[in-house]
Amino acid sequence: MAGALIGEAFISASIQVICDRIASPEFIDLFRHKKLDQPLLMKLKRTLLTLNAVLDDAEEKQIEKPAVREWLDDLKHAVFDAEDLLGEINYEALRCKLEGEAETADKFTNKVWNFLPTSRNKFYQSMNVKIQELLRKLEDFVQLKGALGLTEVVGRKFSQRTPTTSLIHEPYVYGRNEVKENLSKVLFSDDASKDDVSVITIVGMGGVGKTTLARMLYNDDRVKEHFTFKAWACVSEDYDAIRATKTLLESVTSKPCNTTDLNLLQVELREQLRGKKFLFVLDDLWNEKYTDWNCLQTPFTSGARGSKVIVTTRNKNVASFMQNVPTQPLEPLSHEDCWSLLAKHAFGNVNCSAYPSLEEIGKKIARKCNGLPLAAQTLGGLLRSRLDSEVWNRVLNNSIWELPTEKSDILPALGLSYHYLPAKLKQCFIYCSIFPKDYEFKVEDIVFLWMAEGLIPQAENGDNMEEVAKEYFDELLSRSLFQTSGKSSFVMHDLINDLALFMSKGFCSRWEGRESHEVERVRHLSYAREEYDVSLKFEQLKEAKCLRTFLPTSLNPYNSYKNYYLSKKVVQDLLSSHRCLRALSLSSYRNVTQLPDSIKNLIHLRYLDLSGTAIE
């Protein structure tokens, strides 16, 4: 029988890594040979372990107590500062080991000290001061924990790895057969409307399954025979006619397009579609301006009769001016269908009727999902193979359900799926908040970034870090926090993306426009790459004191073939001012021909992407 499910604190994994590092032979040798304050280091470790004991309680109480959430947020940054400091010390310890100083230090300690470069002397002299300062900061948190009523959670943490099967990655669709059948009739009819091109709109709230339904229609085996072309474009909240048109054109021609002129793009798309029957999906459309839609769909009119455009949207107003066949509203699932979906993910191929007590609790949980398949799916992943009524009751009675939506901006069910992740998976999941909505990524993209950021521990069973990271990825995928998108790509549902963004406030940031951002304590940054990325765009980075990730992104995979320009000043400032960088990407900036010498000062750097630059 498994122990009670307990929400592990996000920074528990970081504290464990720090404590392991402090106890490492390299650290102990460095402090002993350099005659540094080893008891101070041990006191730091004890203080961290004291805080770690109450973190799980704080993770629970932060939901209802803003003061606890503030305490926890500030502690996160203190722990990140500790990681950076101990990373510097670890670098020095490894340097000493490699240069053989450790072997001869006992005999020549004084001589070595005298002949060390001045910068090294200063480093050792300041080390105790920095540790003492960090210790004082952490002791303040210890003093406050009592006033906040935080105590050690007694109980066994349950973080068994969720078993995976060949079926778990496939979407389970319940309660949509009739809707799919109705839409299929329209999809494969050449007389669905009086116009040559019929627009089918699927309308419903976030998480109700609009994209899943559109994907079922798009991947129907009959589509290849019925349509000459098919293309899928994620339009999303940030409406961009050029980006959407270019995505459709590149899908139709199967080659990248460097044109950014909307007129030229539309002329080319119109010619490609002329006389051809096509199927386009415009997923997650928000824009309510009729003139924008009229402009976007102008090239479509050259297509052959029977062509279709499927639009998914949360907005009924959008659907009203686009559709020329009856709108398909997508209602929440029935409680029974919601339970079937949750049970499928929770029990896998095991018959749930063999566990009547769990079935009773599970149906109550399913009712709380309010008919949203995304919620049922993620909770099913959370409960997968945990056949223990204590665990299921804990989920049913968790206080997150009572949290007003406007306070968290996330569905309670999705909050629970995060809350009960093991700490190591929380860190990996939250890191993904730097990816914009609808961003498609490969497993290896995520794996190498996680490894660079120190989120993947060395496996005890001998597996290498890459294999461990892939296991983490599969675990998040099995919990429906990632979804498949095509044969080898993955994506996060919009609401899951909102969840990651909400939980990462303060230390992860993504720039998708020219809006201002709080960057002083930001650790991980992504930004939308533009054709000309000038220094003014990155002016705010001067305020960032501890940046670890610098990552340009693009929603269109073909954009990696474009020519981008990045100001040399940005590169120089980045490498000279942000010495905590662990992951740095300058990919696709064709004007980058060399890196400044200051890159040698980035002692934490583990990931460097120079693909698509002019560096040879």
Radius of gyration from the alpha-carbon trace, in angstroms: 27 Å
What's the CATH H-level homologous superfamily of the largest domain?
A: P-loop containing nucleotide triphosphate hydrolases
Low-confidence stretches: 105-109, 111-118, 156-170
Instruction: Give the class from helix and strand content and strand pairing.
Output: alpha/beta
By DSSP, the count of extended strands is 14
Q: CATH topology of the largest domain, which one?
A: Rossmann fold
Q: Gap between N and C termini, in Å? A: 58 Å
Strand content: 5-15%
Average pLDDT, all residues: 85
- Indicate the percent of residues in helices: 40-55%
Q: Summarize the biggest pleated sheet.
A: 5 strands, parallel
Biggest sheet: strands side by side, in what order?
A: 2-3-4-1-5
CATH class of the largest domain: Alpha Beta
Count the domains. 4
Number of helices: 24
What is the name of the CATH architecture of the largest domain? 3-Layer(aba) Sandwich
Shape: globular
Structure description:
The longest helix is centred in the N-terminal third of the chain and has 33 residues, at 66-98. The protein has helices at 12-22, 25-33, 38-61, 66-98, 101-115, 118-147, 177-187, 210-218, 223-226, 241-253, 262-273, 290-296, 316-322, 335-347, 356-368, 373-383, 389-396, 405-408, 412-419, 423-431, 443-452, 465-478, 494-503, 568-577; strands at residues 197-203, 229-236, 278-285, 307-313, 328-329, 483-484, 490-491, 508-511, 524-528, 532-533, 549-553, 565-566, 583-585, 607-609. Helix content is 48%, strand content 10%. A five-stranded parallel beta sheet has the order 2-3-4-1-5, with helices on both faces. The protein has a five-stranded parallel beta sheet with strand order 8-9-11-13-14, covered by helices on one side. Strands 6-7 form a two-stranded antiparallel ribbon. β6 and β7 (490-491) form a beta hairpin. The termini are far apart. It folds into four domains: 12-147, no CATH class; 177-329, 3-Layer(aba) Sandwich (Rossmann fold); 335-484, no CATH class; 508-609. It contains 24 helices and 14 strands. The protein has 616 residues and is of the alpha/beta class. Residues 105-109, 111-118 and 156-170 have low confidence and may be disordered. The radius of gyration is 27 Å and the shape is globular.
